Amino acid sequence: VGQNLIKLSEVDSTNNFLKVLVSNSEPLTEGTVIMADKQFAGRGQQDNIWHTEPGLNLTFSIYLKPSFLPVGKQFLLNMAVSIGIRNALQRFVKDGIRIKWPNDIYFGHQKMGGVLIENMLSGSTYKSTIIGIGINVNQLHFDSRKLKSATSLKEILQQDVNLIELLAEICSHIEKQYLQLKAGGYSQLKDDYVRGLYKFNEPAVYRQNGEVIEGRITEVTESGLLGILRAGELRHYNFKEIEFLNN
Ligand code: BTN
């Protein structure tokens, strides 16, 4: 991952750019990375906009071909990517980096990064996947009207971090997890994912279809459902059904 690196100064979205490359007839090497200094239409999950100050942060997309991955187990790829990012960031920040389900990167109760995975299926196999990653690195000011609560590596470390060094670290850790996925190391991935999960096994409050519920996260399934144990009963929720409260 990252051997073939294309650096752009400005683009709408690195995910969009990669999508166009993938749909062109010329074959693209798996592991190709597109990074940009500035995105003018960066996209987040659930049709959100991804805001980031130009030149200060990491915004990049990785091209993968996980055709070995059975449909229904697609979330294992999200797990591999989030673990890879967390492991890479832990080289810079020892404690406190967590994965917030499904794949936000948190430090304490603040968001430091996000992942937008877009799959292109051919029948029932994953033909191509675009992994879009945004990490707040050297930005210190976040617009509180647009964002819930955000932080960056610089805010935590009180010093600048070299973007290319961090990119290389993230790529190599994602590659390691991706190879583990390819080799079928599912249970290890699931263990590592929950080990790094924000609010795992902690009593917490969530909003589910307008109702506030209290419970603990006890698992995340291979298809990406969040398992919450509530009054002795384990229920599973998808991304649209449940929202974290109190952060
Ligand atoms: C989220 O937390 O909602 C996901 C954010 C993903 C942002 C990255 S930045 C690089 C790539 N290109 C995009 O347009 N989005 C992703």
From TrEMBL:
Occurrences of domain BPL/LPL catalytic (ranges): 1-182
GO molecular function, one term: biotin--[biotin carboxyl-carrier protein] ligase activity
Entry keyword set: Ligase
Entry-linked SUPFAM superfamilies: Class II aaRS and biotin synthetases
Species: Pedobacter steynii
Name used for this protein in its record: Biotin--[acetyl-CoA-carboxylase] ligase
InterPro entries (alphabetical): aa-tRNA-synth_II/BPL/LPL, Biotin_CoA_COase_ligase, BPL_LPL_catalytic
Signal peptide boundaries: none
Cellular component GO terms, alphabetical: cytoplasm
Presence of the UniProt keyword Cytoplasm in the record: no
NCBIfam families according to UniProt: birA_ligase (TIGR00121)
Lineage start: Bacteria, Pseudomonadati, Bacteroidota, Sphingobacteriia, Sphingobacteriales
